[in-house]
Amino acid sequence: MFTRKQILIDAENHSLFLWGARQTGKSTLLKEMFPHAIWFDLLLSDVYERLSNNPSILRETILAQPEANLVIIDEIQRIPDLLNEVHWLITNKSIQFILSGSSSRKIIRGGYNLLGGRAHRYELYPLVSSEIPNFDLLRALNNGLLPRHYLAANVKKLQSAYIGNYLKDEIAAEAKIRNIQSFAKFLEAAAFSNGEMVNYANIASDCGVSAPTVKEYFQILEDTLVGRFVPSYQKKPKRRVITAPKFYFFDVGIVNYLLKRGKIEFGSEVFGNAFEHFVYHEIYAHSQYSGLSYPISYWRTASQIEVDFILGDNEIAVEVKSTSKVSSRHLSGLKSFAEEYKTKQLILVCNEPMPRLIDNILVLPWNVFLQKLWAGEIMK
User: Fold this and answer.
1) Is the Cβ–Cβ distance between 270 and 195 less than 8 Å?
2) Is the dihedral of CA 23, 29, 30, 36 positive or negative?
3) 3-state class of 153 per DSSP?
4) 42-71 pLDDT, tens per residue?
């Protein structure tokens, strides 16, 4: 159905970690790419209990199979002690491992074995437009881009289960959050801040907790790959700029559910925010999948002049507008940025039907922008 990006480029030669939020499709991708690997699924209760009680069983099981050369352990964060066994098998038996999971928080914060640089790190994100045949923008904005959610006829039930079972329960348990009710309120407050500058004090007031607690909650969302910050671009500014970061959840569909948004249509009140969120997701995924890993930031002055996304070291400035008729007022942020920084290209992504060039600003329909992005014509 979907042709996922072949991100495991070193899989034939190196052990690796594959991280990604729950239901992004990690297990499906690995089974398609490596159908003959030895597989340990730690979501299965019998497998989990056996290895949790005695991690050495992993080593003994693998050594009993002389033909074993590739081993996949799914949800490795559930038993971090297995990493000592993995380390020994890589070092002494040259066995290749792929270790997948939905969060590295427990492993990193618990001081567990990270294999001493013997495993590369990769991450799988929700679907991107170039992976989906006959991509439907409105379906993506309404359903989100988790594979099951994108295809669903009744996505609300899936989103409800995802938020209840995973975001509120599993993540809260992993992070050892005692006040589950406050964390649930925080998730809704964070959704209202999606794509906006984060004000910890205001969110803390809404949730009835302290600002440091809210900051820790945001860190938990980052650690569990449920969201990420976009920093302010601050390179030698002539104007006074806002320094607070923005925050985006990893999937627009999750935000829709938390905010109880109605159906998103072209021209609707909520289209613009969802559209900008979607474009950010595409840019971020391209940055990582392409191997370029270029930084993404936003620019906003104290006088409220703003550009949505600055790619690289002010190489590309991208403004996202939901309009189908671009006018001079839509270009003001990009023009102001160009007055302050030398850029390779200024781009406005919109809903116009055809590309245009206005005052040295390239106005691109969203589908043309995405084609150019994934063809490597935007960032090279």
Assistant:
1) no
2) positive
3) coil
4) 999 999 999 999 999 999 999 999 888 899
Taking the C-alpha atoms of residue 13 and residue 15, their distance in angstroms, rounded to an integer, is 7
CB atoms within 10 A of CB 58: 22
- Encoded amino acid at 353, one letter: P
User: In terms of Cα–Cα distance, which of 279, 280, 284, 332 is closest to 304?
Assistant: 332
Q: Give the model confidence (pLDDT) of 289-301 as tens digits.
A: 999 999 999 999 9
Distance, in Å, from the CA atom of 257 to the CA atom of 158, rounded to the nearest integer, reads 10
pTM of the model: 0.94
Residue 16, classed as helix, strand or coil, is: strand
Q: Which ranges of the chain have pLDDT less than 50?
A: none
User: Cα–Cα distance between 277 and 47 in angstroms, integer?
Assistant: 39
| Domains of the chain, start order | 15-124 (3.40.50.300), 130-374 (no CATH)
Give the 3-state secondary structure of residue 348.
strand
CA distance 345 to 334: 10
Res 298: pLDDT: 98
Task: Characterise 4 by phi-psi region: left (phi > 0), alpha (psi -120 to 50), beta (else).
Answer: beta
Length of the chain: 380
